[in-house]
Amino acid sequence: MTPELRSRFDALLTKAVAALPKAIGDVIEEVPLIVDDRPDAELLAQLIRDGLVDPISIDGEDDLPLGLHSGVAITEQSVLDSAVLPPQIHLFREAIVEFAGGWDQPDADEEIYEEIRITLLHEIGHHFGLDEDDLDSLGYA
After folding, report:
1. Domain with 41 in it: what CATH number?
2. CA separation for the pair 20, 40 (Å, rounded)
């Protein structure tokens, strides 16, 4: 992704975060939001080990995750989890842009913004303990 497209994506992400309701926006302040072009090799290997990415198709963008919530959901946290790493939310620019239809479509910014918004809410949902079926029923899958 070029620096210009990265900046364009990040401006859309900033807009999406600013549009979140205050209570949800407060979560973003407590949970690091990490934005990368794509998962690095170590994270990708972990996703393959965890069965979240099919190793046969990792050369294509279609099977890369759009986002990821790592760590323990707040509904599962315990005071006994002192040795557990804090949760993080990851968003992956290239996969989101590809899934939304790319930069070349006439309404690219609107489509990519909407996919950023949905992916962000999806990962925040995981932070609150929602599973894939819950998120699907809410329209965030």
Report:
1. 3.30.2010.20
2. 28
Across 1-141, the runs of DSSP E, i.e. the strands, are: 33-36, 67-70, 88-92
Task: Specify the DSSP element, H or E, that contains 88.
Answer: strand 88-92
> Which amino acid makes up residue 15?
K
Q: Is residue 140 part of a domain?
A: no
Structure tokens at 115: 């996919």
Domain hosting 32: range is: 3-69+85-135
Residue 118 one-letter amino acid: I
The answer to whether the CB of 8 falls within 8 A of the CB of 64 is no
Q: What pLDDT, in 10s, does the model give residues 18-36?
A: 998 888 888 778 888 999 9
Pairing of the two strands 33-36 and 67-70: unpaired
pLDDT digits (tens, 9 = 90+) for 32-73: 899 999 888 787 777 677 666 555 444 454 567 888 877 655
Cα dist from 121 to 7, 31, 32, 116, 141, whole Å: 21, 13, 14, 9, 9
